[in-house]
Amino acid sequence: MPYTYNYSHGSRITLHRQSPYITRNDVTMSTATATSMWGIYNARYAPGTSKQYAKAYGRFRQWCMEHHIDIDAEAVKQQHHIDNILSVYLTELYLHNDKMGSSGKTEAVHTVFGLLHFQTHLQKSTLRKALGILDGWGRLKPSISTPPMSFKITVAVAVAMARSGYTEAAIATLVAWDCYLRVSEYCNLQVKDVIPSHDTRIDVSSSSHNTSSSAPSTIITLPHSKTGTHQSVAIRNPQIDALLTAYLQHSNKPPNSKLFPFSASEYTEILHQATYALGMQHIHFTPHSLRRGGATGQFMEMGEAALQQIMLRGRWLSFNSIRTYIQMAPSIVAEHSIPASTLDIGSRYQDQLLSQLLPYVTHSTNTQ
Questions:
Q1: Using CA atoms, how far apart are residues 206 and 216, in angstroms rounded to an integer?
Q2: Are residue 206 and residue 73 in the same domain, yes or no?
């Protein structure tokens, strides 16, 4: 059945019955071509980014509908009006978030760039006032840097998760810290993405991934990452390596199944529960604290000589990117404001991870 492809209506593909071929802007194309064009256009962003843009833009469209504004018509015929419309929306969004005690700038940024992404007629230069509001927003509500999580704190968090029945989250936390993983990376890993040290498909012992000792180590492969495809990183800590290996063996999951059974938002909630239970609710630890903490920890351990290795393991494209992650002072200060009982858990268990957490691994996998 032939359709007309409407690519300016939100993030969804809207199809209308039409002739076998359509003409739009003097270009004739079939439905298949139109659909493929939108797919290729969307591919310039990571799937998560596209979803965030779509959500924020969708809320802006809903606001426009409530105010009887046809944003599609404005985008085509009266582009100069859109800057004023968007600026009013952003101002209301700012006031709402300010009243709630939050920043809200991320949603504002997603709204602006989501509008530019989905309304392909618009040019960035037509949104001078809205972009100015984003700049002012950043000055009035500067971003709070995510503090790096030291290994001692990471261990305490993992132990708290395991004791609360979240063994998979405990393993993911330790692996994420060791391998500098983003939350989107470890929450989307599949079993087949893990290459155990004993895997005969690859000579891990002679691989450049093996960075900590002469012993072979498990490799985490990342088919799709923020900075490229088919990347990988090896686990440095032998205890974390052994825990992940035990988890794989006892869970006996098929290769195409998810390695960990939670989404990024679900993991974030588990992490917040653990930090609250450990008396760290006043510190803004997020999943990204693990990536920052792992890089900072290796730098504190090995110094300037490790920068090249850290860049490779973290899959950063330049040393300038690394500098934002290697933050020794915040890591040390964070430990000083954490309850002594929490630090004691990390100190006691950081050298006994395998013996302390392995019983949780075998128990949880046997009861699944």
A1: 8
A2: no
Final residue belonging to a domain, choices 81, 115, 140: 140
Phi, psi (rounded to 5 degrees) for 300 = -65, -30
pTM of the model: 0.72
Statement: residue 190 has pLDDT above 50: yes
Top mean-pLDDT range of 169-178, 277-286, 309-318? 169-178
**What is the C-alpha separation between 368 and 365, in angstroms, rounded?**
5
Contacts of 91 (CB under 8 A, 6+ apart): 133
Rounded to whole angstroms, the maximal C-alpha distance in the chain is 72
- 51 neighbors 43 (Cβ within 8 angstroms): no
Whether residues 231 and 351 share a domain: the answer is yes
Cβ distance 230 to 223 under 8 Å? yes
Phi, psi of 172 (to 5 degrees): -60, -40
Q: Are residues 252 and 330 in the same domain?
A: yes
Domain count, the chain: 2
**What per-residue confidence (pLDDT) applies to 214?**
52
Question: Are 282 and 337 within 8 A, CB to CB?
Answer: yes
Decide: residue 261, CB within 10 A, 0-12 exposed, 13-18 middle, 19+ buried: middle
Q: pLDDT tens across 124-155, in order?
A: 999 999 999 999 999 998 877 788 999 999 99
Q: What three-state secondary structure class fits 232? A: strand
| Degrees, nearest 5: CA angle 101-107-113 | 155
Q: Residues 241-273: pLDDT tens digits?
A: 999 999 999 888 999 999 999 999 999 999 999
Q: Is 257 helix (H, G, I), strand (E, B) or coil?
A: coil
Say how far apart CA 193 and CA 258 lie, in whole Å: 10
Residue 207 domain boundaries: 151-366
| Average pLDDT of the residues of the chain | 83
Outline where 203-287 has alpha helix (H): 238-251, 264-277
Rg (CA), the chain: 24
Q: How confident is the model at residue 368 (pLDDT cuts 50, 70, 90)?
A: low
Q: What is the DSSP letter of 303?
A: G
Same domain, 129 and 208: no
Please count the CA atoms within 13 angstroms of the CA of 196 that sit on its side-chain side: 13
